Amino acid sequence: MKITNSIPCLFAVLRLTCANPQITGNVKRQASQLLDSYDFVIAGAGTSGLTVADRLTEAFPDKTVLVVEYGEIENARGVFDPPTIVWGGSSNSASGWLLNSTPSPELNNATALVMAGKVVGGSSAINGQFFDRGSRFDYDSWDRLQSGSPDARKKNIDWSWDGIYPFFKKSVTFTPPPEAVARKYNYTWDTSAFDNVTPIHASLPPFLWGDHFVGRDAWEEMGIQRSQECANGDKEGLCWIPISGHPVTARRSYSGIGHYADVVADRPNYHLLVKHQVARVVYPEGDTKSGPPLVELRPLAGDPSFNISVKNEVVLSAGVFGTPAILQRSGIGPAAFLESVDIPVVLDLPGVGSNLHDHSGPRVTWNYTKPLPFYPLPSDMLNATFAAEAAAGFNQTPAQGPYTLAMSNSAIWISLPNITADYATIVDTIRAQAQSPDAAALHLPPAYNTDPTLIAGYQAQLEQLAALYANPRSPSLESTFSTGTSPGALLLHPLSRGTARLNATHPFEPPVLDYRSASNPVDMALHVAHTRYLRRMTATDALRGLGAVEVGPGEAAAADEELLEAYVRRSTVQSYMHPCCTAAMLPLDKGGVVGSDLKVHGAVGLRVVDMSMMPILPAAHLSATAYAVGEKAAHIIIEQWTEQGEE
Predict the structure, then answer these.
(1) Which family does the UniProt entry place this protein in (predicted)?
(2) Contact present, 307 and 294 (Cβ < 8 Å)
């Protein structure tokens, strides 16, 4: 495969200073620059939205596509880009929403801190670049949640692993590392998991911190098996994970480049409107059976709002928080809530803004009591000479040094049967909740009690979660390790559910997030089991040889169930930045918002394509899944409109 090094020009594109007038011409900033109507309007220029826009404008050169983005076109700073010298030291205030949830009572009233992209490219422009896929069992559960729906059977749309895997493969180009790098780190991969046809790049970095193998050695001592490749649906074990970066320059590869700047120059049917917000979709006279709706756009500069008419359909890709907010502003959502904030109900869909959940978990921490025989370590970045060399290395071709790693590229995924002998008790508890509407509703947000379809949908989710937790090949726990002394114990399939509700005082700002973390007590049992398991790292020769002394939870807390639970409650990170599922793909009688074709139930000409459509979280960070969902959604849309054009 030929690798092109076009990143410097692409950065110029993102600054809108490239000489090609078509590129700058396709970027719109005010109403006067727009057409009177478009065939497709996409709300949100994020990971999935730009993927869909790319595919539609390519497949239908005679159809016009408008993408509306709240943010700007810019080279957004990631969490570890020069000149940043410590992780998380960069500021994304202009490029991302930094949101706090309401307090979670079960976690000592702590709040969840979560970031979402506010830039062309969405969260793929600012995330940690960890580019993994979930387990095949995760996506199989999605499909089973659709299996009882006549809609799914009629349309024959398969959301199982076999149904989405081709789109995972299509969505990324993976370049193996140079032979010397592969030998140095014992990297493994399987190129058959990638099609290499898309300008979204992934690669294995040429740099690891000096203590990286402490974590991997400890995990192997614990009996965790290495996996050659974890992108093929089989994810139990110790994995190498690609970074979403260009294989030569190591610059971030994201949708703003791979699905916009790389392709927009020769697409006259593609318009990108920045610094505007989709305020709502408008069905004349409230008739949602006659669509597509109008799109009301709100300029951020304070100019009057205006409408755009749409010929084919509207695609909401505004993200887990933005999409339910648009729907709720449009009068599409839970009727009781809409009435409480004086929004006329256009379509009662209780699932809009429900089903919010995220990966969460505490950390296991230790200190070393002996000098570390490793170089380099992140602390070396505090040395001005080393930091300057690191920045210079990143600007070489090919790029070298710490900045090529991003956050991490190594982790374990372990199933509950391989974590605790008590897994059957936990699974039985989940199944008992699934079999009783009263038991299922007991720990849900109060709003669920006003609609039996939400409870029925949650029961269906619980059935799938019980099956996942009983499966010795389906991961329950994730822990990443790149360097340091505090790996997290991520709960991959939480049972607790929260809400995203429109901010009645500031309706055009992000919604109010109520995470309700650990409100279902099964989550606490899982957190405790995961913490006990991950503590085993500190008993390995790999760590003891360095004089590792456990700090959290510590031996005293681990020996007392109440103390251990108290540690989990005060130390759990409520969001690992993977929120999901607020416009879930579930049948209407299960509280769903969209069907298997991603069309909003009961709303003609309106579709959702972002991570809000997931019914339950996969065992993965979400960037790769967002691309695959975008690719699959584009395929569904193109197939539909191609068939209609042939009739």
Answers:
(1) Belongs to the GMC oxidoreductase family.
(2) yes
What dihedral do alpha carbons 372, 375, 376, 380 form, nearest 10°? 60
| Sign, CA torsion 339/334/579/604 | negative
Angle separating helix axes 136-146 and 452-470, nearest 10 degrees:
150
Low-confidence ranges of the chain (pLDDT < 50): 1-23, 90-91
Can you tell me which residue has the tokens 């409480």?
Answer: 340
Residue numbers annotated as active site: 578, 621
Closest CA to 403 of 80, 182, 124, 176: 80
- The CA-atom distances, in angstroms, between 293 and each of 271, 296, 329 are 19, 9, 14
Dist. CA 45–CA 53, nearest whole Å: 9
Burial class (CB within 10 angstroms; exposed 0-12, middle 13-18, buried 19+) of 138: buried
Identify each DSSP E strand in 109-205 by its residue range: 113-117, 173-175, 201-203
- Calpha distance 348→331 (Å, rounded): 8
Lookup: tokens for 45: 């220029």
123 is in an annotated binding site: no
Do the annotations mark residue 278 as ligand-binding? yes
Q: Are 66 and 389 in contact (CB under 8 A)?
A: no
Neighbours of 640 (CB within 10 A): 16
User: For 552, phi and psi rounded to 5 degrees?
Assistant: -135, 130
3-state secondary structure of 53: helix
pLDDT value, residue 647: 54
**Angle formed by the axes of helices 521-535 and 423-434, nearest 10°:** 160
- C-beta neighbour count of 321 within 10 angstroms: 22
pTM: 0.95
576 annotated ligand-binding residue: yes
pLDDT of residue 609: 98
3-state secondary structure of 559: coil
Q: Which of 412, 409, 405 is nearest to 490 (CA)?
A: 412
